[in-house]
Design brief:
Layout: E1 12-13, E2 19-20, H1 57-67, H2 70-78, H3 80-86, H4 89-102, H5 111-120, H6 123-126, H7 132-147, H8 166-178, H9 183-188, E3 190-197, E4 204-211, E5 214-217, E6 227-229, H10 230-238, E7 241-247, E8 252-262, E9 268-274, E10 281-283, E11 287-289, E12 301-310, E13 321-327, E14 330-335, E15 338-341, E16 350-358
Parallel strand pairs: 5-9, 6-10
Antiparallel strand pairs: 1-2, 3-4, 3-8, 7-8, 9-16, 11-12, 12-13, 12-16, 13-14, 14-15
Length: 359
C-alpha cells in the first residue's frame, strides 16, 4: 500500500473543472478534503463529476461506475426516444443524467434520479437507502422492471425447489430468464448452480438461479492478515459450505455440503463485498479469472472498470463514498463533483462494490 494518498496524485480538479496541483496535509486522506490553489492559466479537462446534495455520495459513487459500463451507457444514448416512450420514471431520469454526463457538463447532479428512485422504491429510504449496496440493488431492480420486454403469455416456472435432474433445473431457469429480458439482465445477469448430496435419500440435488452480483459476506471471512486479495475472497465465496437442507424425498432435515459453480457468465460482473466495519485492507486486481468456478465457458477473464470505495475501515466515524473508474483518459477518482487523476491504490479507502467487464 502507498503510505499516503497525496503522494500518488499529480493533479486534481476543482469544482470549476480546472486542473490543480494537490499537495495537502498528509493526515487528511480519509475524507479527501482537497485544498485548492489558483490555476487560471492551466488546461481545463472534460471529465465530469456529480455534485453532492443531502449526503448522496453513496449514490454518486454507484452512478459513476454505471456510466463507465459503456454498453449500458451506449444503450441509453442509442435508444433515447424508445426509453422516453416507455415512460418509466427511473429509466427516464437515468437517461437524462447519462446525456448530461455525455455532453461533459461541468455541473451535474442526480436529484431527479434520486427522487425517481424514491418514487419507484418506497423501501429504498425506509430500509436505510443511503448505502452504495442499497442504491445498486434498487437501481438494477427498477431499471430492469421498466425496460424489460413483456411476454404476457409466459408463466414463470418453479425453480426454487430442489430437483435431481440438473439439465431440467437449468432449462427452467433459462426459460424464466429468456422471458424476462432487459438490457440490465443481458449485461449483468449470470447463472449460479448449487448442488448437494443428501445423506438421507442419497441423491444429488440441484438448484439454479440467475443473479446480477456476487455477494461476499466479509464478516464470515476469518483472517489475521491485514491485507487480503480479492482472489482470496472470490475463492471463499465459491468454497463448499455446510448448511441445513430439507429433502423432499427423504422428508427430513440434514446438514449437507453445498457446492456452487457458475454455468453462465455476464458481460459485466459486479462483486459486492458485504460488510459493516472491516478489519483488513482489500486489494483488488485489474484482471481476474473465474475459469475455475465456471464449468461451461473457456473465457472467464475480466478487467476492472470501476469501484465504489468507502472509508469505513477500522471503525471510522462518518462514512464517505467515492469511486474509482477507468476512463478513456486513464484512471480517475470521483469524489462527488471533484475528479482526480490517480494511480491504483488509495490509502484510507476500501472497495465496497467492484465492476469488471468480460474480455
Amino acid at each position: 500500500m502507498i503510505d499516503n494518498i497525496w503522494a500518488i496524485f499529480n493533479f486534481c480538479y476543482n469544482q470549476n473543472g480546472e486542473v490543480i496541483d494537490s499537495k495537502a496535509n498528509l493526515n487528511l486522506y480519509d475524507t479527501i478534503p482537497l485544498l485548492f490553489i489558483d490555476t487560471n492559466d492551466l488546461e481545463k479537462k472534460k471529465i465530469p463529476g456529480l455534485s453532492n446534495f443531502e449526503c448522496n455520495c453513496y449514490l454518486n459513487s454507484i452512478l459513476q461506475c454505471f456510466y463507465y459500463c459503456k454498453d449500458l451507457t451506449n444503450y441509453f444514448i442509442r435508444n433515447e426516444y424508445e426509453i422516453i416512450k416507455k415512460g418509466g420514471k427511473l429509466s427516464t431520469a437515468y437517461l437524462n443524467l447519462i446525456l448530461r454526463l455525455n455532453k461533459k457538463k461541468k455541473y451535474n447532479d442526480a436529484k431527479i434520479l434520486l427522487n425517481a428512485l424514491q418514487d419507484v422504491s418506497y423501501n429504498f429510504f425506509k430500509k436505510g437507502g443511503n448505502d452504495p449496496k442499497a442504491a445498486l440493488f434498487y437501481l438494477l431492480e427498477n431499471l430492469h422492471n421498466e425496460l424489460k420486454e413483456q411476454n404476457l403469455n409466459y408463466k414463470e416456472e418453479d425453480i426454487c425447489c430442489e430437483d435431481i435432474d440438473q439439465e431440467r433445473v437449468f432449462q427452467r431457469c433459462k426459460n424464466n430468464e429468456e422471458n424476462n429480458k432487459s438490457i440490465i439482465s443481458e449485461l449483468f445477469n449470470w447463472c449460479l448452480l448449487t448442488k448437494n448430496e443428501c445423506k438421507k435419500c442419497g441423491n444429488i440435488h440441484y438448484m439454479c438461479e440467475y443473479q446480477n452480483n456476487i455477494l461476499i459476506a466479509l464478516n464470515k471471512y476469518e483472517t489475521k492478515e491485514k491485507n487480503v486479495k480479492l482472489d482470496n475472497l472470490i475463492k471463499f465465496y465459491f468454497k463448499d459450505a455446510e448448511k441445513h437442507f430439507f429433502c423432499n424425498f427423504g422428508k427430513e432435515v440434514s446438514k449437507v455440503k453445498f457446492h456452487k459453480e457458475m454455468i453462465s457468465l455476464p458481460q459485466y460482473l459486479i462483486i459486492i463485498l458485504n460488510r459493516k466495519i472491516i478489519q483488513f485492507n482489500i486489494q483488488y486486481e485489474d484482471l481476474i479469472d473465474l475459469s475455475e468456478y465456471c464449468v461451461n465457458e473457456n473465457n472467464a477473464k475480466y478487467k476492472f472498470i470501476g469501484a465504489s470505495l468507502t472509508n469505513d475501515y477500522e471503525d471510522k466515524e462518518g462514512t464517505h463514498a467515492i469511486s474509482r473508474c477507468m476512463t478513456s483518459d486513464g484512471s480517475y477518482i470521483f469524489n462527488d463533483l471533484t475528479t482526480i487523476k490517480s494511480c491504483n491504490n488509495i490509502n484510507g479507502y476500501n472497495p465496497y462494490i467492484l465492476f469488471y467487464k468480460k474480455i
